[in-house]
Amino acid sequence: MSLLVLGTASHVGKSITVAGICRALSDRGYTVTPFKAQNMSLNSYVTGDGAEIGIAQAMQATAARREPSADMNPILLKPKGESISQVIVLGKPFKDLPIREYYRETDALLEIAVSAYERLYDETGSVICEGAGGAAELNLYDRDIANIRLADRLKIPIILVADIERGGVFAQLYGTMELLPPNIRRLVAGVIINKFRGDPGIFESGIGMIEDICGVPVLGLVPYTDLQLPSEDSLSLNDKRASSSPIRIAIIHLPRISNFTDFESLERGASVEYVRPGKSLEPYDCVIIPGTKNSVEDLEILREKGTIQEIKRAHERGIPVIGICGGYQMLGELIIDDAIESDNARVYNGIGLLPVETRFSEYKKTTIQVTRRAEPIGPILSGIGEVRGYEIHMGETRRKGGNEAFFGEGASSDDGMVFGTYLHGLFQNRSAVLALLTYLYERKGLSYSEEIHIDPYEQLARHFEKHLDMEAIIALNNGDGGMQ
């Protein structure tokens, strides 16, 4: 079986839909795998063999009970600003390209994507594919390798997902169907209406109307649900709302923020707020500087907006300051960029809270999964113990003294109140979340009560089994009535 899940727009729930279908099928005993030909995201993940893919495909692989692989996301675009993206092909950096030059590569990239799909299909026999953005982008049809051109090559059933929360769901679905090329429109086998709020009974007549005007069945009316699953891209930041927790953690909202999913596990026990440069850090109990696609440019914006001084004042108040990846580089004394001309290096002063220097000297990226043990320094690091994660970074960072934060990596102040690491996924480890939140609660004279963890993928599968016609979805296999 193969399906292609397309959307009427970005952020309608395609990634979650693919994950939910994958887990539901896996629960029914099927071997299934996710696939997205081309993804654009600054949230990425490193596979066991060192390949870099979109975090959404890693999440979907987990839902499908599969090890993430480069074939699941053969083309990954990581925006760098000024219409330039780093292009990752089969998990490895290919080149940095302006969007116009990238479009000249799409014929070759489509062949790479189709080959990756075929390898997955040969391995599992069931591939649930995800499109990108909105399917009906007329000006992109000749180069849309994630939606139209892929659908034309694969000729597999399409499920169209719409977001009723945005409003205009009739126009979303009918407009998309009408604008699809006729050969692609014929592949649409059904629609899913996502993020419904309220009494579904009041929309029964609406379902009939959609089926009449679109000519395909509504396969499900899926209520809005808030599960602890990784977000795919920065659009999700707009949906985040601070909780009422007495503990407030500030994540610096860097202009080129990447892998902000590193901190979503903290949201279960603290009010996690993404604070833009220039805003006061006075109210917060902890400050975290996240990863970024461009450490130098984002560092200069922090300097211009006065955020470096805000971070230093937070440190002076005894507030923990933590840097992850690019944030770790910024916490150091210097960043030296001589990647273009070694005899004309550009030197930038860092925040200066850690005795490290970072040098960018070549177009080389570190991508590796790691297991590390935190050094017993201060109350936070001492409680972390052994953790797993992954590194994705350009540049090399050298300690000039002081302490390692983790055995063989990172840096820490003598009291452990400032530390930096390249370890993405640190706070996806229970021990790291527990160590940080326990300290922050105790600092306020409170006790932290850990929430019971329930597998969100099982919750998602139950949600989709309840609200989707899974039997009809299973029957979609190019019209032959069942899964292969």
From TrEMBL:
Keywords, alphabetical: Cobalamin biosynthesis, Glutamine amidotransferase
Domain CobB/CobQ-like glutamine amidotransferase, chain residue ranges per copy: 248-431
Signal peptide bounds: none
Keyword Transport annotated: no
CobQ/CobB/MinD/ParA nucleotide binding domain mapped to chain residues: 4-226
Job description of the protein: Catalyzes amidations at positions B, D, E, and G on adenosylcobyrinic A,C-diamide. NH(2) groups are provided by glutamine, and one molecule of ATP is hydrogenolyzed for each amidation.
Protein name: Probable cobyric acid synthase
Organism: Methanocalculus chunghsingensis
